[in-house]
Predict the structure.
Amino acid sequence: SPKDINSNYFGWRVAMAGDLNDDGVDDIAFSELKSDYSLNNGGAVGLAFGPLSGSYTLESVDAVIYPEATDFLGHDIHGVGDISGDGVDDLAIGGMYTDTIWLFFGGSGL
């Protein structure tokens, strides 16, 4: 609902993620900073695999990344290219009150 979108900071960050699923088409990642997807205010990052059109929510994307602790996951999101050396683009995700950066390694099985 619009109330949930506004209060959960939907779209806090939006990033070109490169080609995370290795299908030859770029993808996007976006965050809902105060999402209750898995935990109260845990945050979540949605992945939409290209080709892209229309609008997206956490309920309509191809994949959702969420934390095991209340970290405001998705405070920062960056497509980082292929840092694992497997030929597929990867994603770095930061939280708000944590000293951790999560790395999401792309692959053809997504």
In short: The mean pLDDT is 87.
